[in-house]
Amino acid sequence: xxxxxISMGESAIAFNKHGNVExxxxxxxxxxxxxxxxxxxxxxxxxxxxxxxxxxxxxTNQLKTAALNSIIKETQLELLQSQLNPHxxxxxxxxxxxxxxxxxxxxxxxxxxxxxxxxxxxGQKTSQLVPFYEELSNCLLYLEIEKTRFxxxxxxxxxxxxxxxxxxxxxxxMQPLIENAVKHGVYExxxxxxxxxxxxxxxxxxxxxxxxxxEPEKKRTTGKNMGIKNVKERLNLLYGxxxxxxxxxxxxxxxxxxRIPYVS
Length: 264
Hints:
By secondary structure, the chain is of the alpha+beta class. It has helices at residues 2-81, 86-102, 104-122, 132-150, 175-186, 226-239, and strands at residues 129-131, 154-160, 168-170, 193-202, 205-213, 245-250, 253-261. It folds into two domains: 1-82; 85-261, Heat Shock Protein 90, CATH 3.30.565.10.
């Protein structure tokens, strides 16, 4: 019995030794693979860590760049809008001054209209989109003020589709063109000048047309067409480079057409 137990113990010891040898051999054989896998996992962890840092940094820089571009664009738009014709205000005040003696009622009405016009013109951000009817109303208000000065020499035709009224346009985008029509049409004409405003939809565009007749024999005022240039630059800033403005001049009719991306 004792001899059997000793024999079994020796067999167990021999088995353990044999098992240990196999395990050690297994460790030695798999060591390169385990080292490789460990290095691979470590590299992946480091890679994911730096990718996360890069992504966070990239998004932060992207937001900063977008904010900077927005500030730059807003500044450019404000600079362009600030170039509204100051002579209109001076001329309107002179007309009001004259009317206070000859026709106080009309002078008071003109003061109210001028106040409303300036409140709209100066009270909005340059990049703000407004319903078309607000732009149209402000332009009509401007023309009513000018009509006080020019009388029957200034007339208006309005051909605006009802579907355009609620569509969004950049604020004050039509005003420089209306001013241009008055300056180069009514100022230099002894006959009646008709300013025609029309608007319609064409696919995904809002098409706005402002046209005025003029007397060809009259010497046209020299200038740089800053009003039209500013409108082009504003639309390029808001919508990217594109053919947003088209100018035609035929049969004594000067026409500016705006093609603005449709925004409901």
